[in-house]
Amino acid sequence: MFIYDLISKKDYILMASNYRIGYYYERKVKNILEKEDWDVWRSPASHSPIDIIAIKPQKGYVKIKLIQVKRTSREDIKAEYFKYDIDNLKEFAKKYKDCENIEIELWIFKKQDRNPYIMKISS
Question: Which reaction does this enzyme catalyse, per its entry (predicted)?
């Protein structure tokens, strides 16, 4: 059985295109963090709330970033546009509310901007 048997060709092409866009921006985040001396891993096509895991040793402890990456074609960035993602990350953040060394973030790229808007998430 081929994937075309399960979904239409149009949906398959759109899915592949969305994957490529996601891959591009996840790689961009990975490169930004690696330049800041973070050890970084992608969680490709995981469909989990976290796309990027970054770890950086500090004096006496380890700092951890758990990041969801999004891209938008909108001119402005408002939390209401990303309510679903923010709610999922807030629910996820509850597990780590007592861990001061873990940051959960939503990185949003506008189509034409080079730098992301970074939203810190807490439970």
Answer: Endonucleolytic cleavage at a junction such as a reciprocal single-stranded crossover between two homologous DNA duplexes (Holliday junction)
